[in-house]
Design brief:
5-stranded mixed beta sheet
Length: 269
């Protein structure tokens, strides 16, 4: 036979193989292939090899290993149509990290002595996200700069810092942040160094280290954001502009002797 010649095997060996009885494992695998095919069609392809294994073992009263089911599914050329494993990516290594120099000492003796900063998320329309970056002065709690954008990126944070440092008049505040990628970026450090400021960072997993800005996010969302619906980015921006102006100028606070943040600042200047 031509095929025997091509495969370089004897005809006797071929006929011996042809007449041989399938092994117990081979017969079992044939049965499993039928069961897998039937189950896969029944569930319309949504099961992966692990769930196929569990289902077959329960149905057949067996204890097949998931690796065997996986190999048979590969032979059949089938796999789950959902829940694909996400591509792995390498986590970015921070360029700049510093210690928690603020150390939860949230009181300041004068304006522009201690600042805290962070980014928070909002939604508008059906499910579109927006991000607010802000810097808060611990002296009076005033929001001294903020930027709302559609992307949580470096430029959002850098622009917020640029706005704040442009208002300085020789002061060199300590600026506290978390360890977000924007704050560990070398360009952020360059801006801090250029303004002759000191950078402080929260410890990993310690949100309370940046408590004052977290507190402001809660106040903003409870007193404004959660009370209304925002269909467009412009609607959301108008609401945030309105609230921060109200917070700085007209929201009187007991700890500030009944004054608003900017009133308190002006009085103690």
């Amino acid at each position: 036979m031509m095929l025997c010649d091509i495969a370089e095997i004897s005809r006797s060996a071929y006929y011996k193989w042809l007449k041989r009885e399938p092994s117990k494992r081979e017969r079992e695998s044939e049965k499993l292939i039928k069961e897998i095919t039937t189950l896969f069609e029944k569930v319309k392809g949504i099961y992966g090899y692990r769930r196929v294994t569990i289902t077959l073992n329960r149905r057949l009263g067996t204890s097949y290993n998931h690796k065997r089911i996986y190999r048979l599914m590969r032979v059949l050329g089938i796999q789950s149509i959902i829940r694909r494993k996400k591509s792995r990516y390498k986590k970015a290594i921070p360029n700049h990290i510093t210690q928690n120099l603020l150390n939860r000492e949230f009181q300041a003796e004068k304006p522009n002595e201690k600042w805290v900063t962070d980014v928070t998320e909002f939604k508008f329309g059906k499910a579109t996200k927006a991000y607010l970056s802000a810097i808060r002065d611990l002296f009076d709690g005033a929001i001294i700069s903020y930027v709302l954008g559609l992307k949580n990126n470096n430029q959002l944070v850098f622009k917020t810092l640029d706005q704040a440092t442009a208002m300085l008049n020789g002061e060199q505040p300590l600026l506290h942040s978390d360890r977000g990628f924007q704050y560990t970026h070398l360009e952020f450090k360059r801006k801090i160094d250029k303004a002759k400021m000191t950078h402080s960072m929260s410890r990993v997993g310690r949100c309370i280290d940046n408590g004052p800005i977290e507190s402001f996010w809660g106040t903003l969302k409870c007193e404004k954001y959660y009370l209304e619906k925002y269909e467009t980015f412009e609607d959301l921006k108008e609401a945030i502009d309105e609230y921060i102006h109200f917070y700085n100028h007209d929201r009187y606070q007991k700890r500030l002797n009944g004054l608003s943040p900017l009133e308190y600042r002006a009085k103690t200047a």
